[in-house]
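#struct-help
A.M.: can someone run this one for me? Single chain, 466 residues.
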Amino acid sequence: MVISRSVAAVIAVVLVVSACSSGATTTTDTPSAGTSVAPVTVETGTARVFPPAPAVPDGPLQPDDRASLEEVASSIRDGYFPAVRSLTDTADPRTLWVLADVLRFAQGAEGAWEVVDVVEQIAGTTIDQSRPWGDLTDHLLAWDLPAPPGYVELKRQIYTTVDPRWGFVFDDPGAELDYRLIGWGGVLIDDRPLGDPLGCARGCIPALDDPALTSASEGGWYPDDRIVFGVEINGDAVAFPKNIMEVHEMVNATIGGRRVAIPYCTLCGSAQVFFTDAVEGVQRPPVLRTSGLLSRSNKVMYDLDSLSVFDTFTGAAVTGPLRERGVVLPQATIVTTTWQDWRTTHPDTLVVAEDGGVGNRYPLDPLGGRDDNGPIFPIGQVDDRLPVHMQVLGVDLGAGRFVAVPADAARETLLAGGTVEIEGVNVTLDGRGLRAMLDGEEIPSHQAFWFAWSQFHPTTSLWLPS
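D.P.: on it. Structure tokens below:
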């Protein structure tokens, strides 16, 4: 495969950059028709107003449009897109989804300006030329514009031109995946075998498999006030320092005799724990890896063996053999707290070794404040009941019922002797971390940024302190 120097340079640059009270309460339900729900700008994290969506025709694409899109998709190889001009003849807005995918990889290519010009003509609005893919995608998500017939095949052509290893993501005709939401996260796929301690030759976010663990007394290298993600299974407690998780974003390990996978989506501020030893009929528990792709800022993870893609928020297989079998990975609670608080509450805890057991050196702040100004990838609409990057504790009650609790407000309420309760869920303290109880039993929960929790669970009910 030959890719133009301009397109290759864009990919190379992105790879380097990415190397990823009183107790009285108020409960709010899912937004009503009158609730303000608006898209968010990448730069500021504040709501913005988009122009009206263009009219969308019914039926298949015009044959000439389909042929032009195929030629434009294949032109990713050289970075020039002369066929894009013919798309203005019909100006079918559905073609914008394919052009957005092209722009994701061709923003630095010589011919990208021509694509942007056509995009503006078809969309009937101007696009921020400093970030054309992001701004166009923000528009498309805000409009909820339908994709054209045959979109998955065209998207597959574009993505596999950049990396053929992504082909499996697009190959399941029964996939339960909205391919409009899939975008490139800036790194390539992690397809290393289980236990490989090395990174990827072409750049990826390498999972950490079976990291070395030490006693809490040997964890003095990690500052007391820094965040850890604490997991306790069958009486065994393990702390995963945030700085290590920011580098690897995925851990496969055994805790309390159970095999688990722990993805950490830095863009969503969300660490989760999935049991991977509960899938019957497989030769070994799924080995989860980071694909390098995103779904509205949420990492797209997959199983190394079956090449099945999972919804990272729900644990449901959405493509491949495990999707056909209806696999949904059960979850456990993960507690977000400080290292001092976790080891005080769990004195027998283990903690990931300073070098991860693989000889690495981890900076304390690998991301350097990357997410301080709001989401950096297009996410579409946001629920403005809370700030986009406020941390919430989220609980899936099943049957399409979800609840969320602002983490800091809940902690302050509980420390003051109040109660935090919503739809039968009672939030309790684990030191200064949070857990959720339902009918006297713990129910899996985890924290995430509000924009992430609410966009994947738009019907969520929200607890607020009065």
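A.M.: thanks! The mean pLDDT is 89.
D.P.: also worth noting: The first strand starts at residue 25 and ends at 28.
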